[in-house]
Amino acid sequence: MSELVRRPDDDSNTHCTPQQYEEMYRRSVEEPDAFWAEQAQRIDWIKMPTKIADWSFDPVDIKWFADGELNICHNAVDRHVEAGRGGDVALIFEPDDPAGDVRRITYAELQRETARMANALKKLGVAKGDRVTIYMPMVPEGAMAMLACARIGAVHSVIFGGFSPEAIAGRIEDCASDWVVTADEGLRGGKPIPLKANVDAALDKVSAKGVLVLRHTGGEVAMHEGRDHWYHEFAADLSEECPCEPMKAEDPLFILYTSGSTGKPKGVLHTTGGYAVWTETTFRYVFDYRPGEIYWCTADIGWVTGHSYIVYGPLLNGATALMFEGVPNWPDASRFWQVCDKHRVNIFYTAPTAIRALMREGKGPVEKHNLSTLRLLGSVGEPINPEAWRWYHDTVGGGRIPIVDTWWQTETGGVMITTLPHAHDMKPGSAGKPFFGIRPQLVDSEGEVLEGASEGNLCITHSWPGQARTVYGDHERFVQTYFSTYRGKYFTGDGCRRDADGYYWITGRVDDVINVSGHRMGTAEVESALVLHGKVSEAAVVGYPHDIKGQGIYCYVTLNSGIEPSAELEDELRKWVRKEIGPIATPDHLHFTPALPKTRSGKIMRRILRKIAENDYGALGDTSTLADPGVAEDLIEGRRNR
Ligand code: WT7
């Protein structure tokens, strides 16, 4: 039996009461055109759309607001200034160093700085439709770079600062991006991150015409004559005015690379109008944002959470969003709470992995700080276990405020399943109910639709405005990945249970994707990195339950003949994977084995490898199809001895 936690009593300021949710949800699915035309009214359109939903999942062709024209930067920034709110704070910057300088950037300032950066991009040669790679620390200029691209109609491709030069090069090449915006270094937990040096190493492999470099730490970096420009010098004389380019609703806004079960990361493409309406609407209702509140999402702008809920969603709502450069556990485990206290944060949105790590430190670090301004807590990135939910609710929230457990994906653009703070009671561990317009469906492995309380694979049957439109440069891959498993439906890759109250419980990925500290990783990517190493012959990678990270990375490795396993080699391979992909892909376990369990046709039996990694030997299931059953025995032996 799951526990039911009552929503706080009705608040007269809420955007959505239980009755309103029912009525709005009904309308959103029965009359989607009318519903979304109405939500779209909160956006400033240069040309008001007359076509609203215009999509098909078979064949796959998705459009929303197609004849509308707008500029999302105008909507996120200029519009608020024009409405007399230029003095409101848009972004608060809290630096890595707790004693460092806080910056408060008003909407008026954001407009000037974004326009100046847009002019810098133009001076560099960036034109409408060009792809601009952004590899930045968590500083306001990262958000400004995204907005500057949107202002002039360039397509941003943000790469998380934790990715390696190889990963940067792959992404630059994939979308043929000629331009890069970066900084000298980032700073996390007191340690510099060599951003510019990583860009340089990437640009040894692929070329770029121009690189803008923000001076942030002042650390020394190499500058390539003719290609690299210090932003402060390059933009010093540029105007703080730059017109917003009128964009068609379906013009591309950004590409964001994400991992799948096969192949290289995919460049998920989002377009302008639908994404604007979706992030504006979801932010408004999910966080129930009220004017003047301080909102803090701890994600990085390199992930979709940062795109939708640090930059676009909050700014489209004229909110004040905090940007934090640092990490939860430096200088100590009270940093998040110290920052909440210092900035009087009202809405706090973080990931289960951070909650679990901080939960280990006990109540002490939380109780040192005054968290009385908190009104709402959010969770995102992976299922939150009920124990962590309880701790978050009771210790951080003082048992008095709601939690929104928001399920969504890079491909969905914004929140899809969640409770709304004053519309729904909560069930710890369940994301809750579908957001407006979302029609989830559970299907079994044959594609049979499951009704009522049931468990199966989570599909979405109807498009929503924030849905990704394609994989950049490879529409066929988009169709194959998301619409071919269950023809005519969007398949999320997640398993899910629906209970008798219609609450959704995400059970995790059902494909070869693992979720490590809320970071999505294709096991195939780690495998390709391992086999690139000269001493490795074969590798199979699976996830296993990890107390803090949710899932850890378990690698089975067979070595080339004549190579002996050793602690040194283990270390070498760990470093190798970090170099190939980035620190987030660092293997937790390397298990050397002379052979992998395979079927007679040569297919690796991952199910068995997963069970062994989980230390669950009783449930290996049918091993009779193995070409050599002895391999599994040896692996179990090897696992026991670890
Ligand atoms: C995958 C998407 C959504 C932005 C961050 C991750 C898992 C995400 C939840 C949640 C259970 C969740 C799913 C999903 N996931 N949020 N609240 N409860 N699982 O975006 O990197 O595209 O990963 O994260 O497995 O498919 P992403």
Automatic annotation (TrEMBL):
Enzyme class: ligase
Domain Acetyl-coenzyme A synthetase N-terminal: 21-76
AMP-dependent synthetase/ligase domain boundaries: 83-462
The protein's role, per its UniProt record: Catalyzes the conversion of acetate into acetyl-CoA (AcCoA), an essential intermediate at the junction of anabolic and catabolic pathways. AcsA undergoes a two-step reaction. In the first half reaction, AcsA combines acetate with ATP to form acetyl-adenylate (AcAMP) intermediate. In the second half reaction, it can then transfer the acetyl group from AcAMP to the sulfhydryl group of CoA, forming the product AcCoA.
EC number: 6.2.1.1
PANTHER family: ACETYL-COENZYME A SYNTHETASE (PTHR24095), ACETYL-COENZYME A SYNTHETASE 1 (PTHR24095:SF14)
Catalytic reactions on record: acetate + ATP + CoA = acetyl-CoA + AMP + diphosphate
GO terms for MF: acetate-CoA ligase activity
Record: residues binding ATP: G381, E382, P383, D405, T406, W407, W408, Q409, T410, D494, R509, R520
Modified residues (N6-acetyllysine): K603
Domain of life from the UniProt record: Bacteria
Cofactor(s) required for function per UniProt: Mg(2+)
Annotated source species: Qipengyuania spongiae
Chain residues that bind CoA: R188, G189, G190, K191, T305, N329, S517, R578
Family statement drawn from the similarity comment of this UniProt entry: Belongs to the ATP-dependent AMP-binding enzyme family.
Span of domain AMP-binding enzyme C-terminal: 525-603
Keyword entries, A-Z: Acetylation, ATP-binding, Ligase, Magnesium, Metal-binding, Nucleotide-binding
Post-translational modification: Acetylated. Deacetylation by the SIR2-homolog deacetylase activates the enzyme.
Entry protein name: Acetyl-coenzyme A synthetase
Positions contributing to Mg(2+) binding: V531, H533, V536
Coiled coil (UniProt feature): none
